[in-house]
Every structure is written in structure tokens, then in C-alpha cells.
Design goal:
The structure holds 2 protein chains of 2 kinds. Chain A is of the alpha+beta class. Helix content of chain A is 44%, strand content 17%. The longest helix of chain A is centred in the C-terminal third of the chain and has 10 residues. The model of chain A has no long low-confidence stretch (mean pLDDT 88). By secondary structure, chain B is of the alpha/beta class. Chain B has 3 domains: 91 residues, Alpha-Beta Plaits; 207 residues, Rossmann fold (3-Layer(aba) Sandwich), CATH 3.40.50.261; 187 residues, Rossmann fold (3-Layer(aba) Sandwich), CATH 3.40.50.261. In chain B, 40% of the residues lie in helices and 19% in strands. The mean pLDDT of chain B is 93. The chains are: A alpha+beta, B alpha/beta. At the A-B interface, helix 1, strand 1, helix 2 and strand 2 of A face helix 1, helix 6, strand 4, helix 7 and strand 8 of B.
């Protein structure tokens, strides 16, 4: 099977977005009837940078 | 005056949501100033810079919410902090709830996702963007305050993985007809456009729409993409994909001048495109190799839109503008001689300076084309002055003028105190995520300013450009009619509005 080119598919296939951050950005995409999932994001590991790095290493 | 502070542990909200909460809190009776921010290091520093000190701030964590109220009395300040949850609840009622908290959660919910839109605070944005790229996702990265080093690493990784990273500091894109970030609703059509400037892309896409054509895709790249340090990684990838895109027939690039080393790389890429290319490098002074041969070079965004569509647009002279010119000149007091431009869009501040300089009019700015004309302080205009009110000086911890007009409203009134001011040039930017009524945000200030000038026997000529289309949620015609009813002379583009100001200044 031919491997999907992510940039090409962005421009030729319907938009499917994941929104992290300002909820308004995701809601505006919804208003345009595009597919979007709104993530209720907050700083990982309570914003503790060292813990965040540790988590990244584990994942 | 009394100040009270409260910290709410583990309650994270996004910055735009909190700005809305803060606006309502600050409008409460007896409040002189209020701040509602997350306890990030940057926000804690900002509070310290404002002289707000409290031992509790030392231990506050990034997921904690800080509320500060300065009021006429301690009683009012304390009462408002006690009632603060009500302000939060009123705002939260309109906020959708989600059980998803991470990018991984989002990806599990939408395994077929092809774009991640990231607008988290800058200090976390690079991490989220890197994770998205590693998962093979394209990224729209609105967040600023991402380091140059992080940008380079993320874009190199993106190139290796074959994905597109629009940003950091990317304000606008339109992908497959869907506006991302601050974008206008425009007709779809054969013109594809790439560029680092959000408002530049908004203006271009709207002008193409007004000229009867349409946009296949508008790809924002982030403000530093064409610097020599980044080398145009996203711009070059976007050019390549637009060249292959079946809907795109002509490609435009709208930018400030690229880095010295990046410019020839870019023009070589133009020459390799199989489709016609139109470029607009605002403020470029030297000749650009290949211009007129392998690509066409527009001096302004208007010219680029005309070249891309083959049609003449907003710059065409009209009789009405001539009549307005004569009327504005005749109602001016002899003392009134200076232009003041107050912009929400940084690109407009830049383009207006370029146009005025091309007519040998020297202008001062907080974001000058030429450092000799830098304002000593952004709040103090001198002679002809154009102010970028979206600059960090105005937006650190405060809403951008595209979302909230209050800082610009105050500046309009401040400019009207100066009896030498003849013209105030403004921009109004419609579209998704902008203020829902940008004109009415400023109209009361315009009236106050006009009264001040009239009390001195003069009249300030207000000139405005409106970036938008009739498809935008704000109502394009309603916004224009409200301006015209207040005697504001309106244009479809910043370049046209600026050229009109040049004529107004001629005697």
C-alpha cells in the first residue's frame, strides 16, 4: 500500500483537527462544520518541568 | 486604594477565557484595576513588575489561578474576591467540557487527525508541537514565546517526518476552506498563498475574494520562518505542496523581506515551480533577482492580489474619494498637520510606513522600517506616527487589539488631545476569533476624539481599512455602515487607506 503523505493529505482530505489550548480556536473550526476534537489542556505534571521531562522519557 | 489577591489552586483556564473573566471583573463598580492570570513564571514576573507582591505568589504553581483586584476600598476588593467564583461560572457556562486532557487523548479520540492546533502558553508549546510532529501530525502553532532554537529543532524534525509546521507565532491559515486561528471566510478558488504574517494573509485572502476569485489554501508559516536562522523550511515545503495541489493554479508569497541568505533560496524555489508565482516582500529596498522573469513582484498586498487574480482592485481611484478628500482638507484647522496610525495588524503598520516613505513622508513608529525613526516610547507619538498596538509592549498580559479594542480606544482619545493631529488611520480586522464587533468597540472613542477637535475649531479625519468579507461572522456591511455613519472614510484595504492619507497630507 502506498504510504500516505501527511502534507498532501492535509490539503486534499477533509480537515480533522485536535485543538490544544484556546477553546475559541477549536469552536471556530466546529462553526465551520469541520471535524475537531477539543482537548481540555493544562500544563502537564502540574507545570513541573523536571517531572515533565521524566514523563517524556518514560513515554 | 486597596488591593486584594486570591490564589485558586489547580484551576487551569486558557488566557482568552480569563481575559473575558477579567473584563467583567474590571467593569464592577469601584474597581480601578484587576488581573486574572495563571501562575506561570512569566505571569508571576509580570505581577512583580507591576509592584504586586505577596508571599503566596512564591509557591503558586502554573496550574493555579491568581486573581488581583484593586478597588476604591478594601471592602469592595475583598467582596469581589469572595464572589469571584460567580464571574468564573458565568463565563464557564459557555465553555464546552471535555474529558480529554492531552494530545495523546485527542489522538485516541480522532486517530485519523491530520492537524494539531496548538495555542498553549509558549513555555509548553514546543513540547506539544514536538510530540505532535513525532506522531506524524501537521501542526498549526499559534503560540509565541517559543525559542528560536526550539523552532529550528521542531522544523528539522518536521522536514524529516514529512509534516508541515505552521508557526510558532502563526496567526492565520485556511486549509481546505477551513479558517484556522484568525482567518476570514473567503470563497474557494485557484489562488494558493503562503506567508509569515497573519494579518498580511488575511488582507490578501479578502482582497482575492473581493476581486471575484478565491483561495485554495492559505498557509501561515510563523513570523521567523524566512529568517536565515530558520531558512524558510515551512515556506519551501508549502511551495512544493501547493505546486502539486490540483486546486491551486497560481501561488502567492506575502512576507516582510526574507533573510539575505534565504531570499535566493526562495527565488530559486519560485523558478522550480511549475505554476506562476507572485511575491510581495513588504519593505524590500533592493532589486530581487528573477523578478519579472520567473515570478512577479508586487509592491503591496493589493498589487499582489491584483497580479494573482488579473484584476484591478481597491486602489482604483473613485470620484467619491476625491470629494471626500476636498471635504476633509477644507474642514481642517491650519494647525492640524500630522497623521497618526493606530494598528491592530503589525503588517499594516509596516505596509503603511512603506507607502508613506515611498512618498517621501517620514514617519515614526514603535516598529520602524528604519531605526532612525523609532519612537522614544510607544505611548508618545511624534510628528507623523504609526503605532503597532499588537506589539509585545501592548499585549503582554493584556488582550490583543484584534480581540479587545480598549487600549486602542484610549489611544484614539489621547491622540485627539494633540491639536496638531489631522488624520487618524485605523484598521478593523474581521473574521474568526476576532472581536465580534470591532467597529463598535472604537466608535465611542472616535466620537469623543471628534468632539475634542471640534471644540478647538477643527476636525480630525478618520480613515479606516476593513479586512473582511460579507461571509465573516461580524457582518461586513454592518461594520462599514457603522463607520460611515460616524463620518469615518472607509477602504477595502490598508494600502488604499494609506494612499488616501498620503493625498490628504499633500497641500
Amino acid at each position: 500500500m502506498e504510504e500516505r503523505d501527511p502534507i498532501q493529505s492535509l490539503l486534499t482530505e477533509p480537515l480533522v483537527a485536535i485543538n490544544l489550548g484556546l477553546a475559541g480556536f477549536g469552536e471556530a473550526i466546529q462553526d465551520q462544520e469541520a471535524e475537531v476534537v477539543l482537548v481540555d489542556w493544562s500544563p502537564p505534571a502540574g507545570g513541573d518541568k523536571e517531572l515533565m521531562d521524566l514523563l517524556d522519557q518514560l513515554l | 486604594m486597596a488591593t486584594s489577591l486570591r490564589i485558586k489552586k489547580n484551576q487551569y483556564y486558557d488566557s482568552v477565557f480569563l481575559m473575558g473573566v477579567n473584563k467583567r471583573l474590571s467593569e464592577s463598580e469601584g474597581v480601578s484595576q484587576s488581573m486574572v492570570v495563571m501562575a506561570s513564571e512569566a505571569n508571576k514576573q509580570m505581577l512583580a513588575d507591576l509592584g504586586i507582591q505577596d508571599p503566596r505568589l512564591q509557591t503558586a504553581q502554573p496550574n493555579d489561578l491568581i486573581v488581583v483586584v484593586s478597588a476604591d476600598s478594601q471592602k469592595i476588593a475583598d467582596q469581589l474576591l469572595e464572589q469571584f467564583d460567580q464571574f468564573l461560572e458565568v463565563s464557564a457556562a459557555s465553555k464546552g467540557q471535555s474529558s480529554l486532557h492531552t494530545l495523546q487523548d485527542g489522538l485516541e479520540s480522532k486517530p485519523n487527525a491530520n492537524l494539531t492546533v496548538i495555542s498553549v502558553p509558549g513555555e509548553y508549546a514546543a513540547r506539544e508541537a514536538r510530540l505532535a510532529v513525532e506522531k506524524g501530525l501537521n501542526v498549526f502553532l499559534f503560540s509565541n514565546n517559543v525559542s528560536l532554537d526550539d523552532e529550528i529543532v521542531i522544523k528539522r524534525l518536521a522536514k524529516d517526518r514529512g509534516v508541515l509546521v505552521m508557526g510558532p507565532d502563526c496567526g492565520t491559515s485556511i486549509i481546505n476552506g477551513v479558517g484556522i486561528g484568525f482567518a476570514n471566510r473567503v470563497r474557494r478558488g485557484p489562488v494558493g498563498v503562503v506567508g509569515p504574517s497573519g494579518t498580511g494573509l488575511q488582507e490578501f485572502t479578502c482582497l482575492v475574494h473581493h476581486l471575484g476569485s478565491g483561495i485554495s489554501h492559505a498557509i501561515g508559516t510563523g513570523s521567523r520562518d524566512l529568517s536565515d536562522a530558520v531558512g524558510g523550511v515551512t515556506t519551501l515545503a508549502a511551495l512544493q505542496v501547493l505546486d502539486k495541489d490540483p486546486m491551486t493554479e497560481i501561488i502567492a508569497v506575502i512576507s516582510k523581506p526574507p533573510g539575505r541568505k534565504t531570499l535566493p533560496v526562495l527565488t530559486t524555489a519560485f523558478a522550480s515551480c511549475t505554476k506562476p508565482v507572485v511575491a510581495c516582500f513588504l519593505g524590500i529596498r533592493e532589486d530581487v533577482s528573477g523578478a519579472g522573469e520567473t515570478f512577479r513582484l508586487g509592491r503591496t498586498i493589493d498589487e499582489a492580489a491584483s497580479m494573482a487574480t488579473g484584476k484591478q482592485g481597491a486602489l482604483a481611484e473613485n470620484i467619491e474619494a476625491q470629494n471626500l478628500l476636498a471635504k476633509a482638507r477644507s474642514s481642517r484647522h491650519p494647525k492640524q498637520q500630522y497623521l497618526r496610525g493606530l494598528f491592530a495588524g503589525g503588517t499594516f503598520c509596516y505596509q503603511s510606513q512603506q507607502i508613506l516613505q515611498s512618498h517621501n513622508t517620514q514617519v515614526y513608529s514603535n516598529s520602524p522600517l528604519d531605526d532612525r525613526f523609532a519612537l522614544q516610547h510607544p505611548d508618545r507619538s511624534q510628528k507623523h506616527t504609526l503605532v503597532d498596538m499588537g506589539d509585545d509592549f501592548y499585549t503582554r498580559g493584556r488582550p490583543h487589539p484584534m480581540i479587545d479594542g480598549s487600549q486602542r480606544a484610549r489611544r484614539i482619545i489621547a491622540e485627539a488631545e494633540d491639536p496638531n493631529v489631522a488624520i487618524i488611520l485605523l484598521d478593523f480586522i474581521l473574521g474568526y476569533n476576532s472581536s465580534m464587533d470591532p467597529v463598535n468597540d472604537l466608535l465611542p472613542a472616535i466620537h469623543v476624539a471628534q468632539q475634542k477637535a471640534e471644540s478647538r475649531g477643527g476636525k480630525i479625519t478618520f480613515v479606516a481599512s476593513i479586512t473582511g468579507t460579507e461571509l465573516d461572522p461580524q457582518g461586513y456591511k454592518t461594520q462599514i455602515m457603522a463607520l460611515q455613519a460616524a463620518d469615518v472614510i472607509t477602504f477595502q484595504s490598508n494600502a488604499a487607506a494609506t494612499e488616501f492619507c498620503v493625498k490628504l497630507l499633500e497641500n
